[in-house]
Design brief:
- The chain is of the alpha+beta class.
- It has one domain.
- 36% of the residues lie in helices and 19% in strands.
- A hairpin with a 5-residue loop joins strand 3 and strand 4.
- Helix 2 runs antiparallel to helix 4.
- 22% of the residues are buried.
- The model has no long low-confidence stretch (mean pLDDT 89).
Length: 108
Amino acid sequence: MGDLREQLLKAGLVKNEPVDPRKVANAGRVEGKTRGNRRWYYTARAGNVPHIDVSDEIATQLEQGLVAVVESPAGDAWLVHAEAATKLREAGGAAAEWLRVWNRKATA
């Protein structure tokens, strides 16, 4: 998908608009009951390995690439839908650094 976007940019058919990672991550936030008894570990920006307590359903969605973990520069972490993760990944740079866990190969 990134290759197609690059081709469209080169052809002048789409504009490369800057992405506000906080807005994308907040808009893509997974709502509802996400907490549970399953610990999901991820590597934080600071290099430590914290965890999020998730439900079995959310853990399955993380495994399937339907949900991702993002972390703000301040260290706040939350769950987002794959669509938001895709936007962050495609934006690259600082936006992509928000992604901590995303099994995107499962969605390909």
